[in-house]
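Input:
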Amino acid sequence: MANLKTSEKKTKAQSMGLHSEVLTGKTQQKFFNPDEAENFYYFGTYDVDFNKRTEIDVKNMECREANKKIDELMKDGYGTIVIKNPQGKHSLGVGILNKLNLIFEGSLGYFGCGSMDGPIVRINGRVGWSCAENMMAGKVVIEKNAGSCFGAAIRGGDLICKGSVGARTGIDQKGGTIIIGGDAGAFTGFMMQRGRIIILGDVGINLGDSMYDGTIFVGGKIGSFGSDAVEAELTDSDQDWLRRKLKVAEIGENFDVSKMTKVVSGKKLWNYDALEPTEKKGAI
Amino acid sequence: MCGIAGLIHRGNTSNVGFELQGMLQALKHRGEDSTGYALYGKTNGQNFIMRFKVGENVGEGSTSVMEDVSVYDERKKIVDGYLSDLGAKIIKEERILPYSLRYEIEYNKDLMEFSQKIESVPGVEILSMGKSLEVIKDLGNAEAVCKRYNLDKLVGTHAIGHARMATESGVDIKSAHPFWGYPFSDVSVVHNGQLTNYWNNRRVLENKGMRFMSECDSELIAVYLAEKMRNGATLEEGMKESLTGLDGVFTYFVATKDSLGMAKDTMAAKPLVLYESEDLVAMGSEEIAIRSVLPHEIETYDPFDGEVKVWQI
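Output:
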């Protein structure tokens, strides 16, 4: 098999701290190259002007209709769109692969802002389950609380909740940063693979259960550690990064980061890649 | 997946039938096999209201066997006779549908003996027995059931309800929620989730003399709590014990004549959104349920894993 990476040499992504594992065996690594970011192009994206602003009231719209309307407005060059009366509707603001300022004047239901890549979103309300699931890039700020599975499987970007979040925040997280101003529920960081989670308040039981990689920082009390999650030393560079991140996130700028607990993977469950292909099938 | 909703007005009454209908209809995408209401209305507090069925709805989608209406009449006659034997006086009688009845009864003896006697008639089930509780459940979505039973004018203090997607038992009224907390008056339960130690618990509880009317795992919660309360536990104590006594994933609501409670399992695997204020608590599987009664911007949150809360009217 061609192009297998078997050397111990760090990739650029590794040297930037985006991930630390070195896969061996027959697994082929293809990691995001920051140098090529500008060359990405998505079909159906638009040139928008952030100074061109409009509002839509979605009170009497189904989510598909509302999402289609957002797409049409971007097509017309609107770079700032305000959504009025979302009233807890599900799946609003999903699949946006554009640079955009999107403001929700109210709360969202399930799967709000999922599978998006690029927009900056502000939600002046609460969000339901699985907000920003699979987000690739961009920034989402939630002014109130969030439901469970917050930031499930995100690949990149910043996801910020100023209130508290439910269970399984950052489940299967593969990159990016999740920041919680309040408390977080059970199984936070469950099976996370990369990225970082910051919780300023308390966190529930089984923190970081079966996490593969990535880092979790907790400001308050921890209910319990999950399987293979261990405490690590909080370094000066960690603290610098935390301060910077909290400032950019408009949250906890004056928070005493020196007392935070850093949690990482104990890496005792790291045997998957050593399996032979037939064993892998069984494991799956 | 099922949807549950509940609300309690503290220090006030409201049109809870209409409000719960709106909440459950907003959750209809979570299941339309059946919908059930447990409404706590304004009554004189003297007589019992017994909601019972003498047969099943055999309409479209039902898994029940068709029976002739004359069978229902025969069962009703036997129930009337048994009520007389028990010393219960029927004050008011309403036959809402051929299989569904509402009796106002004067009775002041043991409810367990009463229930066992009435339910010894094959095909008869007491849906609720209480001085303020009325359980109404039938096939179809919230709007359809509300219209069929004229629930939208019912004034009361609190209510819980359930929109069901049948997964582990039949599409019929006996498997629909809410479940009455037999043999306690005015206790009802709705549940979203799956219980994995149903049979273990059921065997133990049946040996203690508790009654099950269906094979729906959710009924276990009502029976489990009733058994705890029979042994002197408060509602809240029983609910806290259920977090370890019941295995599986669940969020459930329980209501009594003057309180409403919620419990969430230790995995927090089932959704619940909660709004709490001085005079109103509203909760549901999704925020859109709460939005149907509070369309303006409000503060809501998800209760955490293993959380139990109880509110009084």
